[in-house]
Amino acid sequence: MRKWWKEAVGYQIYPKSFYDANGDGVGDIRGIIEKLDYLQDLGVNLLWLCPVYKSPMDDNGYDVSDYYGIAPEFGTMDDFRELLQEAKERNIKIIMDLVLNHTSDEHPWFQAACQESSPYRDFYIWHPGKPGGKEPNNWGSFFTPSCWEWHEPSQKFYMHIFSKKMPDLNWRHRPMREKLYEMARWWLDLGVDGFRVDAVAHLERQWDLADSSKSGHGPYREDWGKFSNLPKVHEYLREMHEEVFSKYDIVTVGEVGGDAGIDAALNYAGPGSNQLDMVFTFDHCWMNRGWNSYESGWHNRTDLYWLKQTFKKWQTGLYGKAWNPLYWLNHDHPRVMSQYGDPENFPKESGKMLATALMFMWGTPFIYNGEEIGMTNPNYEELSDYKDQSTMEKAQRLLDAGHDPKLVKRYIQTTSRDNSRTPMQWDDGAGGGFGSQTPWIKMNPNYKQVNAKQQILDKDSLYHYYKKLIALRRASHYKDVMVYGDFALFDEFHPNIFAFTRHYQGMTLLVACNFFAETAYLGLGPLALKEEVASNYPDANVYEGTLCLRPYEAVVYELKN
Ligand code: GLC
Ligand code: CA
Questions:
Q1: Which of 123, 222, 491, 519 could form a disulfide with 176 if both were Cys (CB 3.0 to 4.6 A apart)?
Q2: Hey, whose CA ends up nearest to atom 7 of ligand 1?
Q3: Mutate to test the pocket of ligand 1, among 49, 50, 162, 166 (most ligand atoms within 8 A of CB)
């Protein structure tokens, strides 16, 4: 079924780092308003804003202390209304992050809940713990070794699967759920066009609280299985859909994250699930050993075999049943240019190749701010330049455990969430055009070479290439096949080339992307090329049924029937 959000091109904004209009070093809502023309020019028409709610900013806004207020560093509710209005005038829709798993410990609900007699007590999860003042179980959180924090005044622990300043909400408690539904309706009534639902897989816990076997990965163990994708999550989401989402023409994307397969995704967003429109999974994000090569040192080469298998799984597994969001990175991941591109030797070619792969797959693309100009990880020399709580926790833990500080630094440089949170590089002037003051987090020094202004002037830039592909997707002869066509890998086991076809109602496209710096060849077999749709080199290179793809070359052809 056709839907506006299937045909949209999304763009994720990390407000703190996008544009600082009032010069206090922190990006803000007025900054987004000022850059709406830039976004309209680029051609995107669906913005996902990371949280702008009132927050003590322990986790840059994911720790909400007032769901109905705007953080003063980001602006005011009037600014937000103006943003909605200005966006609407440009036919740009806006979805907000909706944080349902936890609040800040500074939220009035939690403050009240600290009193045992409070009607808000059951909004959160409390437990007396084991004899001897021990945690109720051994579950870890995403940010800390234990997901339990002792609360001295009430002599109980509370649960937090993220930081200890983010106590988990108790979804078993209907009055709490009603409050969240009311809040979500309030934003929809204000005019937002949907939500990216944060950490949605975790709303339910395994309530026997049995110890976990601690089989996780990463530098320390996480116990996802005990609070991820449990059956009851779907009941809650169906309820929320019934009471909130179904009443509006909106789009909802749930962050389901790692370890969820096709079946899990279909449970959330499949036919008749009546929960969400699509889910973000992370499977394709760490296919270069950036994450798990910590023990063995770095071999930062894209594992194209698994990357292709992963895309095949999601592209074919959901086709005709559900819908995929497409993205290379979000604010929790390193820059894709540093993950799968070659920013040193082939920045333009590899950036365009990655854009081609993303924009020609099946689903709704979400470009992450700065991706369109090829921003990279900053590789800060000093650990103290990193600001993210979870990054700092991890680094400290690894150092405490006696790991080689050089390796720890490399690990952080490669994996930190701050990699994607450095200020947007608007121009090559002082401070990269982000704002007049020293930004809250250090600018990536490569802003002199990599910035929006320079790329807007250069017709051959990555920015202009993104713009072209966005235009193809939104309105062109190829729109339907790009948006609605099916996906099939071509030459599935080619070691260097990611090639696939897209087919829709009599039209077929072939997309071929060389993921490496060595020239590679793709035999076309029975396929006959009709017309070039896109390419990142000035001239194509086809001889007698073979595509010759130079370093990071990407081509798209319409095929003859
Ligand atoms: C999600 C967000 C992440 C945040 C966490 C807790 O994973 O993407 O940035 O830290 O939820 O809200
Ligand atoms: Ca500001």
A1: 123
A2: 199
A3: 162
Closest ligand to Cα 79: 2
DSSP one-letter code for 431? G
Per the prediction, the chain carries an average pLDDT of: 94
Atom of ligand 1 nearest to the CA of 330: 8
Exactly one of 20, 168, 222, 255 is catalytic; name it: 255
CA distances (Å), origin 77, targets 29, 81, 212, 478? 10, 6, 43, 40
Question: What beta strand segments (E) does 147-261 contain?
Answer: 148-151, 156-159, 194-198, 251-257
Lowest-confidence range among 202-216, 435-449, 497-511?
Answer: 202-216
Pocket probe for ligand 1: among 57, 62, 168, the residue whose CB has the most ligand atoms within 8 Å is 62
Residue matched to tokens 């959180």? 141
Residues near ligand 1 (Cβ within 6 A): 59, 62, 99, 162, 198-199, 255, 331-332
Phi, psi at residue 126, to the nearest 5°?
-115, 155
pLDDT digits (tens, 9 = 90+) for 403-461: 889 889 988 999 999 999 999 999 999 899 999 889 999 999 999 999 999 999 999 99
Q: Which residue has the tokens 């179904």?
A: 246
Predicted confidence (pLDDT) per residue in 263-316, tens digit: 999 999 999 999 999 999 999 998 886 544 555 555 578 999 999 999 999 999
Helix axis angle for 304-317 and 262-269, nearest 10°, is: 40
Helix 231-243 and helix 262-269, axial crossing angle in degrees, nearest 10: 30
pLDDT attached to residue 241: 98
pLDDT value at 550 more than 50? yes
The pLDDT value given to residue 341: 95
Confirm whether 58 is a catalytic residue: no
Which ligand has the minimum distance to the alpha carbon of residue 142?
A: 1
Tell me, in angstroms, the distance from the centre of ligand 2 to residue 427's CA: 17
Query: Is 382 a catalytic site residue?
Result: no
